[in-house]
Design brief:
241 residues, 5-stranded antiparallel β-sheet, binds molybdenum atom, globular, alpha+beta, binds the ligand Nc1nc2c(c(=O)[nH]1)N[C@H]1C(S)=C(S)[C@@H](COP(=O)(O)O)O[C@H]1N2, 24% strand, disordered N terminus, Sulfite Oxidase, Chain A, domain 2, 5 helices, 5-stranded mixed β-sheet
Length: 241
């Protein structure tokens, strides 16, 4: 599948009809190639046609909200009673964290612009949680470790980072978004948040962190997305935590 179209500049600006039709075309192309997204696109287009007789209003840049993405139709709900985050792979001290464990660790707040490759953005969004670097440090990463693989309790989505990327201070195991506990729809109770990269890197419903000896491409990366999902202008060499 081709890479999703690049985001429009300037979030709230009206989009020309040509651009809207271009997005429709891109959507139709991904329908053919990515069946799991089809339901999402149908809901999306359905909502658009309800909102406006042209059927295109919903494709305008979102004035302030997020769109929900899930590659699967339903995801189990988890809370403090049954949530678990497993850290394993090339580490000396594998560990399983409860939500209470994560809440008891030092919390970091990062405010940055969220951008999806589909063209919507939400500027200045606060996320808060535990630095992934702290979790990696506590696990005793072996010298053979070079990358991190993320798995999710939706049972399907995966993501990856190099160890160097994973140790940045703007990469969080996030518990809060917009200063509220992460909702189920946004990947709660715990999601990954990779501030300097496109939002597909920020795996929702995070359940596993595994240190690997090389990058294992994630769900979208196996389908043509860049493994390094840097945003334009991101400082790729930001100091580590
Ligand atoms: N588990 C899981 N994580 C995911 C996705 C997904 O489908 N499943 N979609 C990704 C994409 S493409 C985007 S844009 C964001 C959307 O996050 P939101 O639903 O909170 O807006 O989640 C990312 N993380
Ligand atoms: Mo996305």
């Amino acid at each position: 599948m081709a890479r999703k179209p690049k985001p429009e500049a300037g979030g709230g600006a009206p989009m020309g009809r040509r651009a809207m039709l271009g997005m429709l075309g891109a959507g139709a192309a991904s329908l053919a190639l990515a069946p799991p997204l089809q339901r999402g696109w149908e809901r999306f287009l359905g909502a658009a046609s309800q909102a406006d007789s042209t059927g295109l209003t919903g494709l305008l840049p979102n004035p302030g909200g997020f769109r929900y993405y899930s590659i699967v139709g339903s995801v189990p709900r988890k809370d403090e009673t049954d949530y678990a985050l497993t850290v394993d792979g090339l580490v000396d001290k594998p560990k399983t964290y409860t939500l209470a464990d994560l809440r008891a660790m030092p919390q970091t707040r990062v405010v940055a612009d969220v951008l999806c490759t589909d063209g919507w953005r939400v500027d200045d969004t606060p996320f808060e949680g535990v630095k992934l670097a702290d979790i990696l440090d506590a696990s005793g990463v072996r010298s053979s470790g070079a990358a991190v693989r993320f798995t999710c309790f939706d049972g399907a989505y995966t993501e990856s980072l190099t160890l160097e990327q994973a140790r940045r201070s703007d990469v969080l195991v996030a518990l809060n978004m917009q200063d509220e506990p992460l909702t189920h729809e946004h990947g709660g109770p715990v999601r990954l948040y990779v501030a300097p990269m496109y939002f597909y890197k920020s795996a929702k419903w995070l359940s596993g962190i595994s240190v690997t000896d090389q990058v294992v491409p994630g769900f979208w990366e196996e389908r043509g997305y860049a493994i390094d999902g840097w945003l334009d202008g991101a400082d790729r060499h930001s100091d580590t935590a």
